[in-house]
Design a protein that fits this description.
The complex is a heterodimer. By secondary structure, chain A is an all-alpha fold. Helix content of chain A is 72%, strand content 0%. Chain B is mainly alpha-helical. Chain B folds into three domains: 58 residues, no CATH class; 37 residues, no CATH class; 236 residues, MetI-like fold, CATH 1.10.3720.10. In chain B, 68% of the residues lie in helices and 4% in strands. Chain B has 14 helices and four strands. Classes of the chains: A mainly alpha, B mainly alpha.
């Protein structure tokens, strides 16, 4: 990225020689101002389009259920009852349990995927060996297969083993999704690391393991951290496997959100659902906004190669 | 060198030992590489390959009791060849030992509807997401104050879990919901045949376009600014610059982004499963292949395995054709792009 602000800045510095070129410069400045205004309008449209539904979820989550369908565009009839109801186990809403389940399962999955994936990503990024393309292709292929392809056999297998409704029934298939993502993302990050430093450390007398631990690991920490966030978010958002393989005691947040119960029969508790949605989403939004740059780098790391 | 001369009979190329040690070194590196890869490969074999093998074996068995020719008694299971597959493809059902055309309402009778819904969603959402995503990326790529806010805002739909997105749009699309109220219309967004399909498309486009935009933006950022500068000097219009510079240079990133999104859209489950309760319209307007598999799974696991294998093959074929015709470089060529990135 160059730091030049635009054509106008460059032109202003140049001495204007005659009338004609002065008029041309003015016209160009007008065009630039017009372009800036157009950009601003487009930017506002995008921001509104992205945030409006989310804003509506927050507004509704604080609204008295009696005014569920009120279209007042700002906060009105404010109440916290929706949040209390979302956690109300008496009403059949296990949001607290689901949050704990999702957190536990996703941390376990993320740690396992990282422990297994770091060495694989290192080998793929750092070493030249026959069959490398094949291994990379297989890992990519594994990340593109549909969840239903492992869901059907595991459903039968876990029923036979009596694992249905237990935590391992979710952790095992989740690894199938998280591990390829981890290897793929870490590999893209690792390829851009200054490996000359590792070599330099070895020349200075470090053993290969020392060189890796002292020089490379601290440099790789941000990449590993970013990958961990991406793997965690992916697991947190998973619904297909959880909807079939989880039981009442192991339901995840997505399952809890999808099967939200009502205290009043035949009435969909929209305001409570929106409150639950906010609870489930806010931690992710905070995480994403804090680590915005890194997450974007991680998301796009694999995509722009070539 | 001296060892070479000592070992080899006269006239041995002097670098033979060097080559031999290079070979030994290469073998050592390969051994280390596979030792490092082993945990991942074993884990993938256990959680992906093994289930898929079981699934294929299951798909060749029958869910129904068959008569064992030796004992003359009804027995569960048994291999039936490709019957589960032909049942789906020809929409046939087993009834009283005979093969009949499936009555309406059975899962098999909805097979081609599910194929249509899956591909319709894929083509429409990926097209919309590509066009809108390209536009968003072009805006995000410009220098202006508040660009940080814009880039943060587009991450919000991406960060919201799809299950929450589905419930959120379910509320927006409710009969008395905000969309109908504000537009003064009475569309039955989750009960009407085409309205329910468009509801899915709108929600999916909202949720996933930012991801597309970020991938395209990453590609745009690799294009050096001076390329545009030069084009402007030569009198190229903005439109010309877009067609002649932006599109060809962003193509690799774009192709990978479209491939990822296409494969993702073909296995769509969460949105239609929650937003339209798996049905929509008369009951199967938004039933994708993944939803049909899950619906079949609870009653007929072998038949569901056949359908999940069919889904798998379809996605594999689409990926194969896509890479074949558009040359998506998914495994990456780091050196080239890195050089461009550094120059930019």
């Amino acid at each position: 990225m160059t730091t030049v602000a635009g054509p106008a800045a460059g032109i202003a510095e140049r001495p204007v020689v005659n009338e004609a070129s002065r008029a041309r410069a003015a016209a160009r400045r007008r065009r630039t101002a017009g372009a800036a205004a157009r950009t601003a309008v487009q930017a506002v449209v995008i921001v509104v389009w992205c945030l409006l539904p989310f804003y509506w979820m927050i507004v509704t989550s604080f609204r008295d259920p009696k005014y569920t369908y009120d279209t007042t565009p700002f906060f009105s009839h404010i109440t916290f009852s929706n949040y209390l109801n979302a956690f109300n186990t008496a009403a059949g809403n296990q949001l607290g349990l689901a949050l704990a389940n999702s957190f536990g399962i996703d941390v376990a999955v993320t740690v396992i995927a990282l422990v297994l994936g770091i060495s694989a990503a290192y080998a793929l990024a750092r070493l030249q060996f026959p069959g490398k393309g094949l291994v990379m292709g297989a890992i990519l292929g594994a990340s593109m297969f549909p969840g239903v392809a492992i869901l059907t056999p595991l459903f039968g297998l876990f029923s036979t083993l009596g694992w249905s409704g237990q935590y391992q029934a979710l952790i095992i298939p989740y690894i199938a999704g998280a591990l390829p993502l981890t290897v793929y993302t870490l590999n893209s990050f690792f390829r851009e690391m200054p490996w000359e430093l590792e070599e330099a450390a070895r020349i200075d007398g470090c053993t290969p393991f020392q060189a890796f631990r002292i020089v490379i690991l601290p440099l790789a920490a941000p990449a590993v951290f970013t990958t961990a966030i991406l793997a965690f978010i992916a697991s947190w958002n998973e619904y297909l496997l959880a909807s079939v393989l989880s039981g009442t005691q192991t339901q995840t947040v997505t399952v809890a959100i999808a099967n939200f119960s009502s205290t009043v029969p035949h009435e969909i508790p929209y305001t409570n659902i929106m409150a639950a949605g906010v609870v489930v989403t806010i931690p992710l939004i905070i995480l994403v906004l804090i680590f915005q740059r890194r997450i974007v780098a991680g998301l796009t790391a694999g995509g722009v190669k070539g | 060198m001296t060892t070479t001369l000592a070992n080899g009979p006269g006239g041995t190329p002097p670098d033979l030992a060097g080559r031999a040690s290079a070979n030994a070194n290469r073998r050592r590196v390969t051994r280390v590489a596979f030792a490092l890869l082993a945990p991942t490969l074993i884990a993938m074999a256990v959680v992906v390959v093994y289930p898929i093998v079981i699934s294929i074996i299951n798909s060749l068995q029958t869910d129904f009791a068959t008569i064992d020719p030796k004992t003359g008694l009804f027995e569960k299971g048994g291999f039936v060849g490709l019957q589960n597959y032909t049942n789906w493809l020809l929409q046939q059902c087993q009834s009283g030992g005979k093969t009949i055309t499936c009555p309406a309402g059975t899962n098999q009778s909805q097979f081609y509807d599910a194929i249509f819904a899956t591909f319709f969603f894929t083509v429409v959402t990926v097209t919309l997401e590509t066009v809108i995503g390209m536009w968003m990326a072009l805006v995000m790529n410009r220098n202006f104050r508040g660009r940080g806010i814009l880039r943060a805002a587009v991450l919000v739909p991406w960060a919201i879990p799809t299950a929450v997105t589905a419930q959120l749009w379910y509320f927006i699309f409710a009969t008395n919901g905000v969309l109908n109220s504000v537009l003064h219309i009475n569309t039955l967004w989750t009960a009407d045949l085409w309205a329910s399909r468009w509801a899915i498309i709108i929600a999916d486009t909202w949720k996933t376009t930012p991801f597309m935009a970020l991938l395209i933006l990453a590609g745009l950022q690799l294009i050096p600014e001076d390329t545009y500068e030069a084009a402007r000097m030569d009198g190229a219009s903005t439109a010309q610059a877009f067609v002649r510079i932006t599109l060809p240079l962003v193509r690799p990133a774009l192709v990978v982004a479209i491939l990822f999104r296409t494969l993702d859209a073909l296995r769509m489950y969460d949105l239609p499963a929650i937003l339209t309760q798996g049905g929509g319209g008369g009951g199967d307007a938004t039933t994708t292949l993944s939803i049909l598999v899950v619906r079949e799974l609870t009653s007929h696991i072998d038949s569901a395995s056949a359908l999940s294998t069919i889904t798998f093959i379809i996605i594999f074929l689409v990926a194969f054709l896509f890479i074949r015709f558009f040359g998506a470089n998914v495994t990456g060529n780091p050196e080239k792009s890195q050089r461009v990135a550094k120059e930019a």
